[in-house]
Amino acid sequence: MKDIDSRFYRFQKLLSPDAHETLVSTPGLVDRLEHVLEDGADLPLVIDRSHLENLGLVGMSDIDDIVVKGGSGDDAMDNIPLPRSIGPHPIWDDAGACMISDRRTEVPPGPSPRPTPMIKLPPSGERVKASTGDLADIHRSVSETIKFGGGSSLRADHLSGPGGRPRPLAAEYEGDLRVIKDPTSSMGGKSKIDDFRTLFLDRYRTLRDILLLQYGAISPCQDIDDLRSSEEEVRFIGIVESIRTTKNGHRMVNIEDPTGSIRVLLSKNKRDTAALSIVNDEVIGIVGKFRSGDTRGGAIVFADAIYKVDIPIDHRRRLSDVRGLAAAFTSDIHIGSRMYLDKEWRRMIRWLRGEIDASLPGKDGTRVKYLVIAGDLVDGIGTYPDQDKDLLIKDIFKQYEALGESLSSLPDHIHVIMIPGNHDAVRIAEPQPPLPREFQDCFSNSHLHFLSNPAFFSIHGVHVAGYHGKSIDDLVTLFRDVTYENPIEGMKEMLRFRHFCPTYGMRNQISPEERDNLVIDDVPDIFVSGHVHRFGMDNYKGVQLIEGSAWQSQTPFQRLMNLKPQPGRMGIVELDLPNTMHAWELT
Ligand SMILES: [Fe+2]
Ligand SMILES: [Fe+2]
Fold first, then answer.
1. pTM of the model
2. Residue 369 C-alpha to ligand 2 middle, in angstroms?
3. How far is CA 341 from the centre of its chain?
4. pLDDT grade, residue 191 (50/70/90)?
5. Does the domain at residues 215-308 carry the CATH identifier 2.40.50.140?
6. What is the pLDDT of residue 297?
7. From residue 85, how far is each of 50, 340, 375 by CA, in Å?
8. Which of 27, 55, 385, 498 has the fewest CB atoms in 10 Å of its CB?
């Protein structure tokens, strides 16, 4: 509040002395005026007190006896008649200062509406006091749940306390965020051949342990060097070195472990092995018959069964023990881009404040305790050739400052978890470290968490894997079902391989480390990804999948490639209910 005037510079507005005095003396009025401007109110360059009165903003808090139409105060904001003019949309000039765009929506002729001050609003940002009742009891009464993808309203009716006053449920509980795995400590930035050997050895050992845990049929597991001819089947685990198709249509797979390598034949006539998709660098378990050749190189195993890591069939989604809390998942904000959807992003934040409805009622926004953003927080600079032509903000620090400014409108009770993507100010090779301190300093919220990419963490006991998703660029070439239109199939493949980037050496860059932190050793309950700017929700063997949309409209590159983004959406997950999530979008 120390500099009210500067908060309106981004709208190219100045405050008259009487308007300034009114804003200083009226709690919450600055926020409300900002929201009105964000919604496109057509106000002159200098705003004076009469404009605040005409908008119905002044005096509302004094009109205690005016009845709130339609119930709660959260809904009340929606009852303010919006100005007809969708005014200038703020954009930034090259120096990062705000200027007015020439993009305007034509205003149809007609009388200008005059908002009626008929609504009583709680001061913006004020936490509504909890009732003296037992929240757990209130939420225990929840009887209706809607499975993912459905429902326009959910559980919100249980959120109103006595007198119809909204109670931000998420404000009643402390955040419970725990990092399960942090790859930062093992990031060495080396790039020698030996480091890749170490990396793949770690991948092999971790996935081998998972296979042995999941499939008793592979035990006792032998080293490749110990395989000998016998009537008994051999059992071993190896990493796929190469795959080729024989002239008779069978697949010949070279498998290696730390002791040696061997050829494995997958017969086209064996139903169990013929249909399996296998890729280079994958770790698989093999049971089959060993036949020695004239030389060691001539030895071969005829596979009877192949075991893939995958997600165990008995995986049960962990549940929060707090009723009613939800988490929102999205991705790819791309602040700084000319195509960044500022108005939509800010309206989403208003939904989280419970001020507006979207495809879900605003009341549901007050149950959101966590906002998870899966990378590409900003558009970055130099990410692709001639990117500066597509940038409104050409200074990377100012891009993060703009994001920090928008997030400062979030309610204090929301914990924001952010991982980097390929547009962010970190190295491109995965795993990517969290945003460096100098960029974290661009943010002022108290509950921001900058994690690595990928990130493994839990929120109120529910395990989440967040991965930006750049490896989709490889997966679309490896699997027929994985496409840029349907990237969620790629997320399923990652889970099947228990690795975010199953095959090395394609388009996605991997940094050689002592540990392979792209291995999915912790089975998540929720897996969120992004990068493709599509939106989707699905479930794979009990893991809830969210492809996190974007906050950027179609870019020239996407138009060229015929890629159609689905921006402005989120997946909302009920943390205490299994397999229950909702598609969120503006209405
Ligand atoms: Fe992106
Ligand atoms: Fe990306």
1. 0.73
2. 25
3. 17
4. low
5. yes
6. 65
7. 18, 21, 34
8. 385
